[in-house]
Design goal:
Length: about 130
């Protein structure tokens, strides 16, 4: 029951952040508002990449830290590459966009890791971060 409640709390937090990101009205004079549709896209795509990569990598790794590192690294690399392309003329670069990439990455990893802990538990065969004992 405790695992189920923990998983639900992570999902509720992600849902709340998604709603806040998409419903806040920006000032008309701000060309790059903190809460706009593009920020919600940055958040959502980064969360999906990070959590999806964690899910796939967790089937390939015995320890929990490699999926966290790979999922976070991939999501941030893609977000950084997108902003890099924007800065050389393929769009409008924005550090606010990348900030939402970071927030989405953290939330996505938190949800994936929380679900992993809720489903598989913590013990000698499934430690929080370390490689399981032989």
């Amino acid at each position: 029951m405790k695992r189920f409640l923990m998983a639900r709390s992570w999902i509720a937090l992600a849902t709340l952040l998604s709603i806040l990101a998409t419903t806040r009205v920006a000032r008309a004079t701000d060309p790059d508002p903190w809460f706009g549709q593009d920020k919600a896209l940055h958040f959502g795509v980064s969360a999906a990449i990070a959590s999806g990569t964690y899910a796939v990598m967790s089937t390939q790794c015995k320890a929990r830290y490699p999926p966290l590192l790979i999922g976070g690294g991939l999501a941030l690399a893609i977000g950084g590459a997108k902003e890099g392309l924007d800065s050389i003329g393929f769009g409008d670069p924005s550090w606010k966009d990348f900030t939402w990439d970071v927030i989405g990455t953290v939330v996505g990893l938190g949800i994936a890791w929380g679900l992993d802990l809720a489903i598989n538990g913590v013990g000698p065969q499934a430690p929080l971060f370390a490689t399981p004992a032989p």
